[in-house]
Design brief:
Layout (H helix, E strand, L loop, with lengths): L1 E4 L1 H10 L3 E4 L3 H5 L7 E2 L2 H6 L1 H4 L5 E4 L4 H13 L4 E4 L2 H7 L8
Parallel strand pairs: 1-5, 2-3, 2-4, 4-5
Length: 104
């Protein structure tokens, strides 16, 4: 099951160290800023190479606004992964909440 989570819930899960954070945006979007600790795996690569792109259960997916990350979570769910999270509102909601971003 895919859970939509708030930026604050995502931050709590990330501080526990029990989840992988995967940013599914395009390279030009990634370079403008991303969440600390995120791995960059564009959605197209997740679709074409799901088992190598997503090696473990417990993943928070993030994109710009929450739509592409939802698609990535569905791909992971179809693979049999079960601890899946979608950052509701994506990077926009994270930034609006005043949480840190890595630039460059």
């Amino acid at each position: 099951m895919i859970q939509d989570i708030s930026p604050q819930q995502a931050q709590e899960l990330l501080s526990s160290g029990s989840v992988d954070l995967v940013d599914v945006r395009e390279p030009n979007e990634w370079s403008r800023g991303h969440l600390p600790g995120a791995r960059h795996v564009p959605l197209q690569r997740i679709k074409s190479e799901p088992s190598t792109s997503l090696p473990r259960d417990g993943v928070i997916f993030v994109c710009a606004a929450g739509m592409r990350s939802q698609l990535a979570a569905r791909v992971a769910e179809a693979m049999g992964l079960t601890r899946l999270y979608n950052l509701r509102g994506g990077l926009q909601s994270w930034a609006t909440a005043g949480l840190p971003l890595v630039r460059g």
